[in-house]
Design a protein that fits this description.
Layout: H1 3-17, H2 24-33, H3 35-55, E1 60-68, H4 89-100, H5 103-113, H6 142-152, H7 160-182, E2 183-187, E3 194-201, H8 204-262, H9 270-306, H10 316-319, H11 322-344, H12 350-440, E4 448-452, H13 465-490, H14 497-504, E5 508-513, H15 521-527, H16 532-546, E6 555-560, H17 567-580, E7 585-589, H18 597-601, H19 610-615, E8 626-627, E9 634-636, H20 646-650, H21 653-665, E10 668-672, H22 681-685, E11 691-697, H23 703-715, E12 720-728, H24 730-736, H25 739-746
Parallel strand pairs: 5-12, 6-10, 6-11, 7-9, 7-10, 11-12
Antiparallel strand pairs: 1-3, 1-4, 2-3, 8-9
């Protein structure tokens, strides 16, 4: 693969991936190109929509409003029995909105106003619809219908009254469902307790009546619910009071019987025993302290009396004794006197002896007094011990009595608690019963109040003709535009030279119009040499010449991506045009598998041609060509030789020699080759010819197929002069105005240059 082919492939790939988006200009031209489809679809939808719109019956809407949660003066606090909704919060408010839309209120209004007798709420009373005529049962005889209904509904044979009742209930249920579908309940403003009740009906007066009846039924329902709740609470409380009264009497009798059985009085309770235990326990603590104190004093005295000298005299009891203090004072005076006598008289003086005798006597008395004090302390300690033991005995006896009394009082206290609880519960229910009876005659106000009643509507609420018409028109145009773009998206063909150059990167060298006459295009060019078709071929010829200005373009291959794109017709037309201009031209049928030139040009059967020339040598060239009956064009059919391989023929050295010979003896050699995607003949032959013309059926051949075919040609180093759009509808092409070339065909004045 050469460098030029690489550049072309790279360009093709880049262009294939490029996405510049859709411009507003292209959108407009797409709609303009399919304006007939757009307008036809839109007008059809608008017509159908307007017919349906004007067949819709007029509906009128009436609205009333109520406020939920009206504050009330509570004479008796009975909220726990008949709870209002004023303090229920937003959830209670939403709940009341659901109540307004409930089936219960709807059924009450339907029954009160007898709405099931109106055709609007009873489909069986309406005129028969078109679909009812499609029911085959209606065409049966009456006796057959009765028999069929008896088979389908055997249970209704029980009685005519039962059937009528069931039918009435069914009509009521249907009317209630229709009623609910026409009812709208909403909040006036956020966080507002005002509810708007709207009802839609075919009759404006009926809509007003129903819109005013719904809040009335709701308020009456509230009062009935409160009264019913009060009555139920009263009955329930009465039953509970009777049971509680009996329970109180039984529990109090059980308490009294137990007291009499165990001889337990009101005052002989556990509190007295506890007080006695507390008092004795306190006395015992004091006695133990006194005993410990007495023993301590006695022990100290004993220790002092057992020692030598006058240690006992220093004891607290001795010091606090007045007699001992007097004797100690007398002893001190006598010792002072003895001291005086010692210095005056001597140890054996009678006075001295007398003083000593008195001192000894005083000391003896002191010792005897100390002994008495010690004996008193010992007695005091004994008394304290006896008292302590007595209190301990009394405390143990009381504990024993208390334990026995507690065992007897356990069940008594349980019975007393049960009696007290029953008495308290009875008093509570009795108070609540009195409140309920009092409130039953006072709670007669609902928690809602009507704010405004519904008035007669000024006009129908639906259908809104103006709004609906605008929506129908807008929807029709939108749907039609979407349909146009959908068809445009599904139409994947090439439509203009600009599109070919943008998507493929290959120049468009021809735009061949579609011939609408009965003549074949290759005959039309002979009949109308100055027609637009002939001028398009002349333009193609010029483009081929200019594709290689330095080299003469003589051998030209014409191919396409798939069959039925008009390549053979283009090859014949171009060849005849070149022959008509005085150029020596030959047309060769290279589609060996599916030859079409013989049929299109009515050539003689079994004419020798290309395959015969490839197999035979040293023959006259004129034996393998046929002269066109309508022009000076020479034609080489495919030939009669069989069992030949087309790819081997075109790839052979002899084919190169034949092409060289043809280039030397003819001004133009046109090769009609098979499609690229079908076989490889065009890719092989394309390397031997000067230029290849790639034919594309306008608006038909898919882009992906075209790109694949062009890529294969370029990858085999085929020199593509350009693409030709074949069978173009110039009127539609000009109206579409795609790119610059489209403007040329928009102006009808250009047609004066053509003769047909």
């Amino acid at each position: 693969m050469n460098k030029a082919a690489n550049i072309k492939l790279e360009k093709l790939g880049l262009l294939a991936e490029r996405d510049d988006g859709i411009s507003l200009f292209e959108v407009f031209h797409t709609l303009w190109f399919r304006r007939r489809l757009l307008l036809t679809t839109a007008l059809f939808i608008i017509a159908v929509g307007l017919i349906i719109l004007h067949q819709q019956p007029l509906r009128y809407t009436a609205s009333s409003s109520i406020i939920i949660g009206v504050p009330q003066n509570q004479i008796v606090d009975i909220d726990s029995i008949v709870a209002g909704i004023s303090g229920g919060g937003h959830s209670a408010f939403i709940g009341e909105m659901q109540v307004l839309q409930s089936r219960g209120i709807a059924r009450k209004v339907v029954e009160k106003l007898n709405l099931s007798s109106l055709p609007e709420f009873n489909p069986s009373l309406r005129p028969r619809s078109l679909s009812s005529y499609l029911n085959p049962i209606q065409y049966l005889p009456d006796n057959w219908k009765f028999y069929a209904e008896s088979l389908l509904q055997p249970e209704q044979s029980a009685g005519a009254d039962t059937v009528k009742e069931e039918q009435a209930n069914q009509r009521l249920e249907v009317a209630t469902s229709i009623f609910q579908s026409k009812l709208r309940v909403g909040q006036r403003e956020q966080f507002s307790n005002v509810i708007i009740i709207s009802f839609e009906s075919l009759d404006p007066r009926l809509a007003v009546e129903i819109a005013n009846e719904i809040p009335e039924s709701y308020i009456i329902g509230q009062l009935e619910a409160k009264f019913e709740a009060t009555e139920k609470a009263t009955v329930w409380l009465d039953e509970q009071l009777a049971n509680l009264k009996l329970a109180v009497e039984e529990s109090e009798q059980a308490v009294q019987f137990y007291r009499e059985k165990f001889d337990i009085t009101e005052t002989q309770g556990g509190e007295i025993v506890i007080e006695q235990l507390s008092a004795i326990n306190g006395q015992l603590i004091i006695a133990r302290a006194e005993r410990a104190q007495a023993e301590a004093r006695l022990s100290q005295m004993r220790k002092l009396t057992q020692g030598e000298g006058s240690a006992a005299e220093s004891a607290l009891e001795v010091l606090s004794s007045g007699l001992i203090q007097g004797l100690q004072k007398l002893e001190a005076e006598l010792e002072q006197r003895q001291s005086n006598y010692t210095s005056e008289y001597g140890a054996k003086h009678p006075k001295m002896i007398q003083v000593k005798s008195e001192i000894a006597e005083v000391r003896g008395r002191i010792k005897r007094e100390i002994g008495k004090i010690a004996s008193g302390l010992e007695n005091e300690a004994d008394v304290a011990r006896i008292r302590e033991r007595s209190l301990e005995t009394s405390l143990a006896q009381l504990k024993k009595e208390s334990s026995e009394q507690n065992r007897e009082s356990v069940e008594l206290r349980a019975l007393e608690r049960e009696a007290a609880a029953n008495r308290t519960l009875f008093e509570t229910f009795l108070n609540r019963f009195k409140e309920t009876n009092t409130t039953g005659s006072l709670q007669r106000e609902a928690d809602a109040r009507i704010v405004s009643e519904a008035g007669l509507p000024g006009g129908p609420s639906s259908p809104n003709i103006k709004k609906a018409t605008v929506l129908i028109v807008a929807g029709a145009l939108l749907f039609s535009a979407m349909l146009v773009f959908l068809i445009q998206a599904l139409s994947s063909g090439m439509m203009s030279p600009e599109q070919i150059e943008n998507d493929l990167g290959i120049p468009a060298i021809g735009l061949i119009p579609k011939v609408k006459r009965r003549l074949q295009p290759h005959d039309y060019i002979l009949k109308k040499p100055h027609s637009s078709y002939a001028e398009a071929l002349n333009s193609l010829r010029t483009s081929l010449i200019l594709s290689a200005p330095d080299d003469a373009v003589k051998t030209i291959q014409i191919t396409s991506s798939v069959p039925e794109e008009g390549k053979s017709t283009l090859a014949i037309s171009l060849a005849r045009l070149l022959a008509q201009s005085g150029k020596k031209t030959i047309l060769i049928d290279c589609d060996l598998r599916r030859a079409t030139l013989e049929k299109k040009l009515s050539l003689p059967a079994n004419s020798k041609g290309l395959t015969d020339l490839m197999l035979e040598t040293e023959v006259e060239f004129s034996e393998f060509v046929v002269e066109d009956q309508k022009s000076s064009l020479l034609i080489m059919p495919k030939g009669n030789a069989k069992y030949v391989n087309a790819s081997d023929i075109f790839a052979s050295y002899r084919m190169e020699k034949i092409i060289t010979f043809l280039r030397k003896h003819f001004d133009y050699v046109i090769f009609d080759t098979p499609p690229v995607m079908a076989v490889s003949d065009a890719k092989i032959l394309g390397r031997m010819v000067d230029k290849t013309v790639f034919v594309i059926h306008w608006y038909k051949t898919p882009k992906k197929v075209i790109k694949a075919a062009v890529q294969q040609l370029i990858s085999h180093e085929v020199d593509i002069a350009g693409c030709v759009l074949q069978q173009v509808n110039l009127k539609r092409y000009g109206s579409y105005g795609y790119g610059d070339s489209g403007y040329y065909y928009q102006h009808s004045k250009y047609g004066q240059y053509y003769s047909g």
